[in-house]
Amino acid sequence: MMKRPLVFGLCLFWALVTLFPLYWTLVTSVKPPTAVNGGPTYLPYIDFVPTLQAYIDAFSGIRGDFISPFINSSLISITATALSVLFGTMAAYALVRFEFRIRLLSGLIFAALAIGGFLLFNETLGFSRAQAMGLAFLLALPACLLANRLPLPGPVLGNNDVLFWFVSQRMFPPIVTAFALFLLYSEIGREGFKLLDSFLGMVLCYTAFSIPIVVWLMRDFLAALPVEIEEAALVDDVPRIRIFFEIVLPMARPGLIATSLITLAFIWNEFLFSLLLTTSEWQTLPILLSGQNSYRGDEWWAISVAALFGIAPMMGVAMLLAKLMRSGLTLGGIR
Amino acid sequence: MARVELKGVSKAFDEVTVIPALDLEIADTEFVVLVGPSGCGKTTTLRMIAGLEGASGGTITIGGREVTDLRPGLRNCAMVFQNYALYPHMTVADNIGYGMKVRGMPKPEIATRIGEAARILGLEPYLDRRPKQLSGGQRQRVAIGRAIVRQPDVFLFDEPLSNLDAKLRIEMRTEIKNLHRRLNSTMVYVTHDQVEAMTMADRVVVMNEGRIEQAADPITLYENPANTFVAAFIGAPSMNFVPATVVGSDGGLALRLNDGSELAIPQDRWQRYGAAKDRPVTFGLRPEHNSGGGAGEAVITLITRAIEPLGPHTLIIGEAAGHGYTAQVDSHFPAAPDAQVSISLDMTNMHLFDPDSGRAL
Ligand SMILES: Nc1ncnc2c1ncn2[C@@H]1O[C@H](COP(=O)(O)OP(=O)(O)OP(=O)(O)O)[C@@H](O)[C@H]1O
Ligand SMILES: [Mg+2]
Fold first, then answer.
1. B201 and B324 in one domain?
2. Is residue B163 located within the same domain as residue B282?
3. Same domain for B71 and B196?
4. Which ligand 1 atom is nearest residue B192's CA?
5. Which of A321, A329, B198, B236 is the right S-S partner for B218, CB 3.0 to 4.6 Å?
């Protein structure tokens, strides 16, 4: 009997801890500058007289352009989420339903040919770096696929190893990838194909970076689906691709929604890639937010407004998707 | 024309052979039941016919067409699974019609076929429901409906009734049999329930450890089991097995049990068992071929251990000649536990098996 109040108390305490920053941002956004700078004040109308001046300033554009980073962030994160969930789920499905046997040696052959080919094409044959990269890739991929069919010696990797390979891409610090990506993009840009500070470049990089998480999450969701349902469709001569889209995806709906939400939140909040790979045109909201205090000093009321701009859409999406997920879960009775 | 032929079909999962070369011919319009203990390879065999599992060796032919390496969809089979395997997000009508829709059949024809299947299976009131809103029996009917509209060469059932309660199982048994008569198509049905096998099949295939022990019509299986495995598997309660020796007596043959008692072998069997004279054998007799009392010609003494009154008759479980023995007697036969009773045997239904190979003599 002693336990319940204790648990309730702890929950309440934790709710306060998580909600207080949000509340603080909210009240700060309606404070006049004097109320911000003159020591802590907590309650509007009691501690200070609230004002919407900070919002008016934001919309009138005094604090820089809010609208276009907001649109950029929306477009990029929605597109990249859709793509990474689609391709990541396909990859996860393949890992669940098909058995892959990959010879370690053929992977090494790929690495050797890709790097060696690049050096050959670039330094010996005088292609530009981006061209050499493309050519080396075109050489290495078929060679490695072919090599995998030969009875090469050495260890053979299975599905779990492939999964680990996917997830391992997220294990080193993102800055490593970000710099490499910056170099890659600028090289490709030199060939006249603009990826830096472009919609395509941002979508590609976020898609690539999100796929591992999607694969990892979706694999468990898909593995939990009963295989007989798909087998029934196979016997009925339904093509695999239609089984995937018309049977597997609807059954995996709760998982898809949860995964999309996680991916979307990640991309929406991502800072480092955007910082390195965009300059002006396709800048995203986090970059704008981080730049807030450098415009005119620490104007916390204005920074709060900007922060709320960043938070509000995600909260809306989270609530919407959570609702969808709940209805999906009740529909989920599979057997 | 949908004969199914398995020639030397084998299956190994990573080195472990679960089915050594297996030969089975299923005639057109035949209802064949594969039965056997758990893990004997019934499902694997069925899945190899469906193409969901590749065969490690041998050839599979359906309707004169070799399908060994064909993908499942091209074999024109329909399969019904134990756990229904309905599409959970589709209505009953969509579940039944989905395959036809994918194959690009015109809408009116799809509707006609769905309507007909629903009528046959009594699903008309439920066409707009989702699987979750149906009972187990209704779900399995939807699965059968999905199979019917395919108009397949062969129907494959993998324990379709195992998830249903006993009463519904008996109803569905009859329904599937009626369906077979109506559709007149080839059906292969897997079960581990020997009653289901006996009641439904034209021919029962008894499997054990991936091998076919015997394939025959139910009555032949019951009356002439090929070996002790089939003899023990078919019939409930199981056949009694008692070691004995065939001896000569009065110019004919008799069985001598371990306790020295002798049971005369009927004259019409003398020739058949002549070669076994003076050899040890396993004597087999079903519980239902016994009766209480010492009135018959072949009488043994049974030490009773347990009495199981079942209503129409009573089972006495006990020991005879040092071996476990079950006798089915009249409900009013006086018997008490841990007593001795005389049981007379109906030797016209006797079986003899080779004690080493288990094969029937
Ligand atoms: N995918 C698999 N990998 C390895 N072994 C398997 C696989 N599927 C089945 N087996 C083995 O093959 C044997 C036959 O299995 P199968 O499912 O055909 O048995 P069954 O007769 O249908 O049994 P049950 O009555 O329990 O369904 C079993 O020993 C099983 O362990
Ligand atoms: Mg089985």
1. no
2. no
3. yes
4. 25
5. B198
Average pLDDT of chain A, as a whole number: 86
This prediction's pTM: 0.85
Q: Tens digits of per-residue pLDDT, B286-312?
A: 999 998 887 778 888 889 999 999 988
Which residues contact ligand 1 via a Cβ below 6 A?
B 13, 18, 36, 38-44, 192
Q: Which region holds residue B239: left if phi is over 0, alpha if psi is between -120 and 50, else beta?
A: beta
Q: Which domain holds residue B82?
A: 4-233
Which of B77, B87, B132 is opposite residue A235, by nearest beta carbon?
B77
Determine, yes or no, domain membership for B360.
no
Q: Nearest residue CA, atom 12 of ligand 1?
A: B18
**More reliable by pLDDT, A31 or B20:** B20
Average pLDDT of every residue of chain B: 90
Question: Which residues of chain A neighbour B103 with C-beta distances below 8 Å?
Answer: 237
What's the gap in Å between B19 CA and the centre of ligand 1?
A: 10
Q: Which atom of ligand 1 is nearest to the CA of B47?
A: 18
For residue B328, give the nearest of B253, B239, B267, B243 by alpha carbon. Answer: B239
For the ranges A31-45, A186-200, A234-248, B283-297, the lowest mean pLDDT is seen at A31-45
Beta bridge partner(s), residue B154: B77, B186
Per-residue pLDDT reduced to its tens digit, A168-213:
888 888 888 888 889 989 988 888 888 888 999 999 999 999 999 9
Q: Which residue has the tokens 């800072």?
A: A271
Count of domains observed in chain B: 2
What's the gap in Å between B55 CA and the centre of ligand 1? Answer: 14
- Asked if A99 has any chain B CB less than 8 Å from its own CB, the reply is no
Name the residue with the closest Cα to ligand 1, atom 4: B13
Would you list the DSSP string of A196-249?
TTSHHHHHHHHHHHHHHHHHHHHHHHHHTS-HHHHHHHHHTT--HHHIIIIIIH
Best B130, B132, B150 member to test A by mutation, with max A CBs in 10 Å, is: B132
Question: Which residue from B minimizes the CA distance to A228?
Answer: B85
- Work out the angle between the directed axes of helices B166-183 and B107-121 (0-180°, nearest 10): 130
Report residue A220 CA to chain centroid gap: 19
Structural domains of chain A, with CATH: 64-95+162-328 (1.10.3720.10), 101-157 (no CATH)
Contact B180, B32 (CB under 8 A): no
